Amino acid sequence: MSSSNRSSESSKFTEQGVGEYERRRYRGIDQRIVHAREVHLIKRLFDAIRLAEGGRTDGPVLDLPCGYGRFTDFLRTRTSGIVNCDLSFEMVCRAGEKLGRPGVVANAKRGLPFKEGVFGAVFSVRFFHHIHDPADREAILREFRRVSSGWAILSFYRMNGLHVLQRRVRRLFNKSRANIKMSEPGLFEKETAAAGFELVRVWPLFRGLHAYHIALLRKK
């Protein structure tokens, strides 16, 4: 399977690596709980969009980064269409197998190959906390606003002392290697507003225990 566009930046994943990542990720009990909670919150956010729009999301949804297609089955039930997009060609191919059609390889901070307002919503989970450069975050948010006709669902990490301590302990035992950007209080709201979004709702994954949050944004 091929994609309609290929990024100039390579990703760390090979075809075999994607398969291994899919087999290992969200298989432990703790990760299954996290996944179930994520889905619950995302359902509530899509329900909020449907309530505001009086029906289903108007237009297809851009799933970026789509990864191996973790949310593909869910998005099918809540949207009128899905377009998969990821920096990784191998991830796009795997997600495309589940969807039955190829997706798009693109780097959001360099610009997305889509027309303005073509998507009813942009769905971006487990991505923003990996973007450490404020200029890159600004570029990505502005691209999300440009290609969306109204909505975005975006996850981020808000500074949480307990979670910071947990990650430090995990690093001591080589349990966590990811370098996560946790937003200082008010920073996420400031950056999304500057990009032209209104923050409608934000829910924590586990209040007080985890830094992960999911937000519903409306295009101004």
Describe the structure.
By secondary structure, this protein is of the alpha/beta class. It has a single domain (30-219), classed as Rossmann fold (3-Layer(aba) Sandwich), CATH 3.40.50. Helices cover 40% and strands 20% of the residues. The chain has helices spanning 15-24, 29-53, 72-78, 89-99, 134-147, 161-172, 187-194; strands at 61-63, 82-86, 104-105, 119-124, 148-158, 182-183, 197-204, 212-219. Strands 1, 2, 3, 4, 5, 6, 7 and 8 form an eight-stranded mixed beta sheet that branches. The radius of gyration is 17 Å and the shape is globular.
How do the helices and strands follow one another from N- to C-terminus? HHEHEHEEHEHEHEE
Number of domains: 1
The CATH homology group name: Vaccinia Virus protein VP39
Radius of gyration: 17 Å
Proportion in helices: 25-40%
Query: What is the mean pLDDT?
Result: 86
Q: Count the beta strands.
A: 8
Q: How much β-strand is present in the residues?
A: 15-25%
* Weakly predicted, low-confidence segments: 1-10
